[in-house]
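To illustrate this point, what follows is a protein record of this kind.

___
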Amino acid sequence: MAMTDMSIIGRSMTAQLFSTVTTVVTVAIAVALMLVLVSMEGSGRRAFERGSGNMDLLVSRDADPMVAVLNGVFYANAPQAPLAWPEYEMIAQHPLVDFAIPTQQGDSYRGRPVMATTPEFFTSFQPVAGEPWVFTEGGAFKPYTGGEHEVVVGAAAARDLGLTVGDTLDGITHGLSEQGGHVHNEHVFRVVGVLGVTGSAHDRALFVDVNSSFLMHAHDRRLSEGLKGETTVDDITEGDRRITGVYVKSASRPGAQAAASLPMLQSQLRARLNVTVDNPSFQIDKLFRIVGNIDQIFVGMAVVVMVSSAIGIMLALYNSMEQRRRQIAVLRVLGCSRGRICGLVLTESAIIGLTGAAVGVVVSLIAMRLVADVMRARLGLVVEPTLTAEVAMVTVLSATLLASLAGVVPAVMAYRTSVVRNLRPLG
């Protein structure tokens, strides 16, 4: 059987199988890491832009605006400092406000955050601008005035907890962890609606009327005061009416942009109420500027790993050249020119780089899907990684070129191999 160039290269690679596989894996890891970072950066940003929706401002008493957005929109933690109900009413009555929706966070159900709000949350607020809420089952809760409590369940929470319209739950817990704190098991809630998927953090939350939440905490207060009997809405005091945030959309004249009134509204609310007021979109941009710097570090690390893999290719081929000098000399005697020998080594290094890059593309696609699934399950965020053919091709070609360059030194060694010296009798 005639020995072709590819058969010679194949035997060379299998003869150094462990070294070849190790180098291919190193290249694959570097390529996969780079592709995942590049593809997830843009899609992650788009995912975080979902949730703040059509609100212009978030009002809270969290000291830092970014913390306020992470808590108030993405349910990172329970806001620590409350707002009084009269403060909310002052915001809602401001002439520059189109809508002001109160929110109260700090309770949970089996590890899922519970937000207390008003029915306007489902009619005026849109979780994604231009995309209003859609109910797959039932509808919004009614303002609580007594009797049965009602709850609306986000899409991810309904899926994970197996909740549907008509189910009841009585384990709302103070605190956001699954262990939580005090359990409000004296109050039973009936599921009246299940929301469709929005791709935002709201998908993993449950929503109740603010008066239901006020009543639960009024009941706890009455117990601590030694008062007995059933707690009703008439027992709710101003001290019980505490919220943690307000979703605000500024009003605008027909034909005018709402953004024009935002700075004035923002400064007036800060001055009158001494609260944290900021645009969630601005804080998300700020967050991704920080994350972007970290991404650049990771991309730099991926480049370093890729360069290291190229060095690994060079060392592997260099060491194999030392062991294969006699084989090269035999090939020369059989008619292989110096240029052909040099080309065989360069081709071998390019094949190693190309194989590693191809494996890296496959690994990156799997990793992107896993990351997206984890973010959907844990955070309720819909992240759709986008890997374009152009980006994948450029990365694969870059890795192959780098591997080819790594083969130059071993190729020169093979080119300069002496036939006479290496065909001397052994021993």
Observations:
- DSSP finds 14 helices and 13 strands in the chain.
- The longest strand covers residues 97-109.
- The chain has two domains: 5-48+286-422, 57-278.
- Residues 115 and 207 are 5 Å apart (CA to CA).
